[in-house]
Each structure stands twice: as C-alpha cells, then as structure tokens.
Amino acid sequence: MQLDEKDREAIGKYGQMLSVCLRIVESSAQVNIDSFKEYCKNTYMHLIDTLPWVSITPTLHKLLGHSWELISLNEGVGLKRLDESGMEGCNKMLRTIRTKHSRKISQQACNIDCLTRLWLGSDPILQQQRMIALPYCSHCKVSGHGTRYCPMKNVKGGPMSEEDAMFFTLTVHET
Fold first, then answer.
1. pTM value?
2. Where would I find the beta strands (DSSP E) of the chain?
3. Percent of the chain with pLDDT over 70
4. What are the boundaries of each domain within the chain?
C-alpha cells in the first residue's frame, strides 16, 4: 500500500505527538494534568480524524485515554517511579548465572548458587568497580551515561526541538 503525502504528514505529526505522550508518562517530572489530558485527547482525535484506517489497540487506548488518570493518582508525577525495569533488569543476568555458573545437581543447589552470586553482585565495593566500566560523558564529565544521552546536553545548547518544547509546556516548572 502506497501512502500519499497527506497521510505521511499525518503519520509524522501523530508520531511526534505520541512521542511527547510517552515521554511525559515515562518521566519523573511534575505534570500539568489538565494540559496533559487535553494533549492526549488531541492526539487521540488527530489519529481518529486523519488516519481512520488505523486500528486503536487496547494499549494505545490506555495510554491516550487513561494515562492522565494514573499520573493524577500518582500525585501528578510521571510514572517513572512505577517502572518495572528494575525488577526485570536482573532477568538476563539471572538466566546467565543459572545456565552457566550454577550447580545442576538439584533445584536447591541451583537456587543457592544464583542467590549467592546475586547477593555478591550487590556488594558496594563491587558496585564501585562496575561504575568504572560505565560510559563516560565528555559533555558533563560524569560516568554513568554517554554524551548521546546526556541530560545536560540540551540545557545550554541551541534551540529546543518541537517535541522538547511540548514536553516543557506539559510539565510543571518552579520559577
């Protein structure tokens, strides 16, 4: 199926609007709930009006129709602190420990080996050594993230993108 220019522009605008919605939900910023609710509604209506052939999945409906409610229940703060990535972050490491570094003689021995290795991994001295291996940002001179993902990068340099400007208007800033 070939898209005409009008549909391409509508998809581009929708992608940008959806990106802002996702950034707000995944942030830890204080959100202007009324503005965000209106923005989500406008994004939803833009999709329905300009791209009627696109089906709206339950996940998309929850994001655009109800994320503002969750943020409101979260004291007006984005949902980053409700993120499950911390819990799921160890799955890959646990799988490696279980398959390559644990005893296979019994489930109990395997569990003991896994827990022991995970416990050792939480040692502050080992954590400090891991920090040395993290990427170093030449922009803000801090370990833990690279220059590409530096949070200070857009603070001083150049004009904001349209998405950044919209994100800024939907969050609350103290003056």
1. 0.59
2. 136-137, 142-143
3. 87
4. 5-83, 85-153
